[in-house]
Amino acid sequence: xxGRPCHxxxxxxxDGAVAAAWYxxxxxxxxxxxxxxxxxxxxxxxxxxxxxxxxxxxxxxxTAPWVVVPxxxxxxxxxxxxxxxxxxxxxxxxxxxxxxxxxDLLERTRFVFTPQxxxxxxxxxxxxxxxxxxxxxLSNVPSHIILVDDVYTTGATMRSAVRELxxxxxxxxxxxxxxxxx
Length: 182
Fold this sequence. Notes:
38% of the residues lie in helices and 20% in strands. The protein is an alpha/beta fold.
């Protein structure tokens, strides 16, 4: 609760993580799958509604100079899907929190064929996160970043990005996901 890392994810990389919904909820799972894998953009108002309700209920008011940054797709994956769900979610989160969004700060460097949430074995998902999946594209990075992604399973992908951001000078990185679940 309130972003404290659980014992499985408390490795000192990510400063905190929160999610608006549970991926185990069949309605949330179908909403995400229809949106991401079938390109049903009509799902976005429903996703935005969940995010707005979550922000209003939990009242996470940023008190530092936060910047919202999406965990963007690789350009090839973005072309396949026709949009980048992390960029869309980051815009929603930024709007609800009243925080600026920067989608030019982090670039995915590796193309992966299987989405993280579709990998069955936890160890394989965590191993993927140890690889360098991202690159920081700017030399002047914000001190406080809210990383946004659609699904947080093991946190491996998010932690991969956090390592790059902190190496570039970011002090605090929190993760925000639309849905959380293994």
